[in-house]
Design a protein that fits this description.
alpha+beta; Uridine Diphospho-n-acetylenolpyruvylglucosamine Reductase, domain 2; Uridine Diphospho-n-acetylenolpyruvylglucosamine Reductase, domain 3; 31% helix
Length: 418
Amino acid sequence: MQNSETKILSQVFEEFSPIVDGRLIDDQKPLFTVAPRNVREVSEIVKVAHSQGLGLAIAGSRTAMRLGKVMKLPFAVLDTANLNSIVEYVPEDLTITVEAGMTLATLQFTLAEHGQYLPINPPPSDEISVGGMLVTGIAGTWRGQLPSTRDLILGATTVKGNGTVVRSGGRVVKNVTGYDLHRLHAGSLGSFGVVAETTFKVLPLPTSSVILKIKPKSIKTGIDLGKLLLDKGFPVRSVVLTSPSVGALLLSDEDFLLLVDVGGSEVAVAQTVAAIRDLSEFAVDSIETTIGQQLRSIFKGDNRIVIRVGVPRQRITEIMSYMMEINIAGFANIAAGQILGECFSGDLNSLDELAGELGTLREIVERYHGYLLIENAPTDLRSKIDPSGRAELSVVGELRRKFDPGQIINPGRMGGRE
């Protein structure tokens, strides 16, 4: 878009103090950036963008800006950094309503003061924004044992693609009739509008926690032991098996590591640790809980190529072994049947080869009714292979047209307008 057109557009948004230039997104420089301070300003900005047919890339903490398809049309950035307040917090009701730009770290700090927390640990860290956590749907190692972000949403205030403000759900835990509209936004990449506020159900913070390190001899023995521990019903938040390359990044000289995150009362944790030591044929050691954060952030960085594979538990050994064969460093969340991995590639020619390998891996996991998602990758790779691998469902396209008729919110990120 010509500079003169950019100038005219920024003048249209003058009320919202647009900042010209900004960080690249999908190798493109945004036309300008606006940072609304409340729901009304979000609504007005989206309304003006809709009238101009201008795409809006939604940015929070920018931890997942290379997720989804490549945006090819000119766009401005709607930055949620100023939407960082607590709207309402009722500790005795175990509910909290926060604005979308608040970081998970700030939210957890506030909750911890009342002995509570949101049981979510998405990568790469608690610096992820609440809105980003919701619309990306990226899961951490607790997924499978604890509720997902989608399960914890009680209500939301969102802005449709024409500027209309929509409020769904409520701020209390109760049964409702009909569909929970706010849950549509989980994993939507903003296709159904801009999330401005969200109400969550929270849980009591465990009074004690520990991470156990076990050193199995193979993928199979590690997965089998992990499944046994999960089936025993222990108060574990995650059971993760790392490949040798990931173990090396965690400064371990063992080929495989089984990491078991135990959380609960002091008595329950002590009893669980003793029971696991009795069940395991391998040595069981307690380690610093900070290793959980190290694992979350292990594939952090704009220059990484990160994929997530989901398969039934009984197929984890096979798929993880295959991923190691094609030089993918990974670790498996056994409870959720997910393997997070980093691919290694260099020039454009090797990206072609990598795209082919990922396509083959996707075909294999889909035979088992699984999936392969590309969670972080350069535009070149995301242009060669669909990050989600899912053909757009007609119902999704129809919903997008209802919520965002001009398809201006993160245009093309989930297909459609490009």
